[in-house]
């Protein structure tokens, strides 16, 4: 059976008793009037072959009486599977609406090793904080989240050492960065689930024991996936990360440990060549209440900011184009800009330019490209959303398709969390998005493209008695397996991971 179309298809199978002159076990075949035929119908989802790729276009459009317009030109790649491309448009009235829509993806059951568990656990907390701070946290979501947070918390304890440190598999040397990440997350989770005070005290004591005489913390341990820790690559950034974690837990700046680490970091502010370090330091000194150092760091960051069409972001260097690192740096600048008190209209206006750039980097599910950029960006966006949350305003979103069709969406305070979506027919050409009114609209245009890929297999050595073999491909964060029978050559199982 070979399907000719994609989508849900009904497949029916029938078994029927028919009249026959052939004896059956020396008896004459008798066909009953009722029950002589039985039919079973099942729905079968037919998907396109190839590897799915999603190109996502995001806009956060906040009109203040005028009309805001954005355009995008879509063009299909040459290796797309014929007839399989799909495109849709969705509109929400909430800046974190995409993440809220995909709570099943963000509020998911943590699993795996100590790194994987935290990668899935941490974003949940910031989503919950945003919902709570804007009074949108329903009992149903809270109950579900508490269950997942409790599971993730208990599972993480499996990777704890006897001395209070954490590591990827709970063996070998403790990892200073991962321990700080766990401590930071557990501290924020305390407002939603019960965290044993000992599970806060022991990691804190271990981290304090890793502080050098100069005040900075010593790097210990290895990560299975170094992308987990983002731009934290040396003692200064590690110290800033640990210090910020402790300050977020409301430790006093007069505490000897924090006093020492802040002194060490203060000595590092003379070298501002590393943009990531500067952004993280700006956030850390903001939390510490050192407004003079904060102003110095933010002033330098403003001089190296990348400005384009009203958007604002930062990269490590002019040659460093890592999207993940750019998101993380920009998110720390946003956190530093919003964590001071009081905030002026100018501060919020400056932050809005960063937010609009960050929103454009989101994937179709409301996350970003890797672990730490998603964690830090959601924390920053949640803080911004809380600062600017409003229950007023309405807007109308008009989308013009290449063939001339129009799609209208209304955004108001009664439906700002309503996920409005419409399937689009034109998969190529120019789309125009217009927003009129006084409320922000989050607009996303994702295109799902199954792509064909070829694998060239070359036999370098002659092999006798060839037999079929199986190649298994594993994704580090997704345990699903893909198997392919290769009848011409013998292969050892191959394991790939996004390390």
Automatic annotation (TrEMBL):
* Domain spans labelled Alpha-macroglobulin receptor-binding: 395-487
PROSITE patterns reported for this sequence:
ALPHA_2_MACROGLOBULIN (PS00477)
Gene Ontology MF terms in the entry: serine-type endopeptidase inhibitor activity
Instruction: Answer whether the UniProt record assigns the keyword rRNA-binding to this protein.
Output: no
Xref: InterPro entries: A-macroglobulin_rcpt-bd, A-macroglobulin_rcpt-bd_sf, A2M/Complement_sys, A2M_TED, Alpha-macroglob_thiol-ester_cl, Alpha-macroglobulin_TED, Ig-like_fold, MacrogloblnA2_CS
Q: Name one Pfam family in it.
A: TED_complement
Q: Name one GO cellular component term.
A: extracellular space
Q: Which UniProt keywords apply?
A: Disulfide bond, Glycoprotein, Protease inhibitor, Serine protease inhibitor, Signal
Q: Does the keyword Heme apply?
A: no
Cross-referenced Gene3D superfamilies: 1.50.10.20, 2.60.120.1540, Immunoglobulins
Return the PANTHER family for the record: ALPHA-2-MACROGLOBULIN-RELATED, MACROGLOBULIN / COMPLEMENT
- Please state which protein family the record places this protein in: Belongs to the protease inhibitor I39 (alpha-2-macroglobulin) family.
- Supply the name of the protein: Alpha-macroglobulin receptor-binding domain-containing protein
């Amino acid at each position: 059976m070979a399907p000719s179309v994609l989508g849900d298809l009904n497949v029916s199978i029938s078994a029927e008793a028919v009249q026959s002159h052939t004896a059956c076990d020396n008896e004459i075949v008798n066909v009953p009037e009722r029950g002589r035929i039985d039919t079973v119908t099942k729905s079968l989802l037919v998907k396109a072959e190839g590897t799915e790729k999603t190109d996502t276009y995001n806009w956060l459009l906040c009109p203040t009486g005028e009309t805001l317009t954005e355009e995008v030109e879509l063009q299909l790649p040459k290796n797309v599977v014929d007839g399989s491309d799909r495109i849709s448009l969705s509109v929400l009235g909430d800046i974190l609406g995409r993440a809220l829509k995909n709570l099943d993806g963000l509020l998911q059951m943590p699993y795996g090793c100590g790194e994987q568990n935290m990668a899935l656990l941490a974003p949940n907390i910031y989503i919950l904080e945003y919902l709570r701070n804007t009074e949108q946290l329903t009992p149903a979501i809270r109950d579900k989240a508490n269950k997942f947070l409790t599971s993730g918390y208990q599972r993480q304890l499996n990777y704890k050492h006897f001395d209070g440190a954490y590591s990827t598999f709970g063996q070998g040397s403790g990892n200073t960065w991962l321990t700080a990440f766990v401590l930071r997350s557990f501290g924020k989770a305390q407002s939603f689930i019960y965290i044993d005070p000992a599970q806060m005290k022991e990691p804190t004591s271990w981290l304090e024991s890793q502080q050098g005489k100069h005040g900075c913390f010593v790097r210990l341990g290895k990560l299975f996936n170094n992308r987990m820790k983002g731009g934290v690559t040396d003692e200064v950034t590690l110290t800033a990360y640990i210090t910020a974690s402790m300050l977020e837990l409301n430790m006093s700046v007069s505490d000897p440990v924090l006093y020492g680490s802040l002194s060490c970091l203060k000595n590092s502010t003379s070298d501002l060549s590393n943009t990531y370090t500067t952004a993280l330091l700006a956030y850390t000194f903001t939390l510490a209440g050192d407004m003079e150092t904060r102003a110095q760091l933010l002033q330098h960051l403003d001089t190296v900011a990348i400005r384009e069409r009203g958007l604002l972001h930062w990269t490590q260097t002019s040659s460093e184009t890592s999207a993940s690192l750019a998101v993380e740096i920009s998110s720390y600048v946003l956190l530093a800009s919003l964590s001071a008190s009081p905030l002026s209209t100018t501060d919020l206006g400056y932050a809005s330019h960063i937010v609009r750039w960050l929103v454009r980097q989101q994937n179709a599910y409301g996350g970003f490209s890797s672990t730490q950029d998603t964690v830090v960006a959601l924390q920053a966006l949640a803080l911004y959303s809380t600062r600017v949350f409003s229950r007023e305003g309405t807007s109308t979103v008009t989308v013009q398709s290449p063939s001339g069709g129009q799609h209208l969406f209304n955004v108001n305070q009664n439906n700002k969390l309503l996920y409005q979506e419409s399937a689009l027919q034109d998969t190529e050409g120019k789309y125009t998005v217009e927003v009129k009114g006084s409320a922000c609209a989050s607009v996303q245009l994702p295109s799902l493209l199954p792509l064909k890929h070829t694998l060239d297999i070359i036999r370098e050595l002659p092999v006798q008695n060839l037999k079929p073999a199986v190649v298994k491909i594993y994704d580090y964060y997704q345990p699903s397996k893909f198997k392919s029978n290769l009848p011409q050559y013998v292969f050892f199982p191959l394991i790939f991971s996004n390390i």
